[in-house]
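During the second year of the project, the team shifted from modelling isolated chains to modelling whole assemblies. The rationale, set out in the original proposal, was that interfaces cannot be judged from single-chain predictions alone. As a representative example for this report, we include one of the complexes processed in the last quarter. Its constituent sequences, exactly as entered into the pipeline, are reproduced here:
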Amino acid sequence: MVARRIALVKPASVADEKVTHALQLFDSILWAFQGTSRTSWTVVTPDTADVIVVYEADPDQRISAWRAQGKLIAEFAVSEPTSAALVYPFRAAQALALLERLDTQLQARGEAPAPKAAAAADPWSFVETLRTIREVQNSEAWLVARDGRVTSLWLRADAGMYAAEHATVQAIRRGTLQLANLELEKSSFPEGGPTPRAGTELSWFAAYHASPYLAPWLNAATRYRVTRWPNFGLIRPLPSHIRVAAALASSPARPDEIAARANVSPEEAIRTLNALAAANVVVAAETEVVPARKAAAPAVQPRGGFGSFLRNVRKHLGMGA
Amino acid sequence: MIVGNEQELKIVFTGPMGAGKTTAIRSISDIPPVSTEVDNTDRATCDKDSTTVGLDYGQLVLEDGTSVRLYGTPGQERFSFMWEILSKGAIGVILLIDGSTPTALEDLRSYAQAFHRFSPDQAFVIGVGRSNPEDAGLLDRYAQALAAGGIIAPVFDVDVRKREDVLLLVETLLCILETQVPEINNAVH
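Output from the structure prediction step:
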């Protein structure tokens, strides 16, 4: 396999969210399709890169200097018309085709490939991969995820199903399996392998445990709401997860508003929002047209008030509050 | 006991015949459920020995003496007039659907729409039993079908023979009340 070095440059002076999303998408495609083509791309800083991916309207003067040094510059755009090589939102196949062309250009120049270097593990890389391959929607193929030479799990190429041994499933649910360390390769699902499980479970726990901070594709200033509930029968949620989903099902909220509304800690609110987003059940409120609806209070006021009543019901049934 | 009294704290379990309402109530009730079951003569609709023709009744008595009544609606369509009576003023409604029947989606739509019509703002949770584990998208399709009709409700895979699954449905009802009803939210905080 040929190793190449690539840099993705985020413009310092461009505030458009699409630019950030485009770079994240490109980065996750690089990660997701590692090992599936003859060239292995490692993300590095621009100084050591063979290829530098830049936003077409980035005024950064270093770009001209890099070009003058003979580095290949691949431009992307976020709207038409453009002469850029990629226009966001782009498909994985388009990004892969661009990489293929860049590799061919480097070969034609006779440039020696770089020694293969290990990329730093980004806590969101696996989740980003799941989001990317869900977009590709290839339900025919399977991928295998390995940590070194150890197979951890099989993943259907649309992220709709996954399969792993019981102990691995439990590790994913507990967050003790370092998913960001896994490398994916094309594979086939082994005969007699573990029973496939719904991919929502993997997406949920991968995102929930990835980081205590907001997922890179979410925005602290945006108000989000749940469009449909995730299958909690599968996920087996904590009550705090249910409260966050219920809070966002009734009306939109910014990430910093969720904790108070759901009566959970700020970290729990963020982690659960990340998981809901990875399960593809939240949207930015501005794009949602279904009117929010809140539940009505029961007709009867319990003695001692509702707060005491709910505590007593939970205590009586042995449920965690 | 005054059946369907609005002035009582109650949770209503509904759904078609054979969906597991009696089983669900039995799994959490303090008392053996009072069921008005008779031999099932409608084997074409549901192949089980007995079915509820009136209603099921169970009860939780909390430590402060508060009683929460658990009602199971009769499954047959001809008793649908009782659904509204029973659900009026309830804490919430738990709809149970048998995911293995060919009419599951239609049942889901018709029950959800009926209860939504009676009380559009009532806390409402759906449990789907016996769904095909290989059909990972089934629950999503159910939730999307409801959303298309303007109903955003939790739809979960459950096995009502397991107490923890019934508790998940009850917990979800409580969380909906807690986070969505201002007077309850204020009381909890």
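The radius of gyration of chain A is 23 Å. The CA atoms of residues 53 and 74 of chain A lie 5 Å apart.
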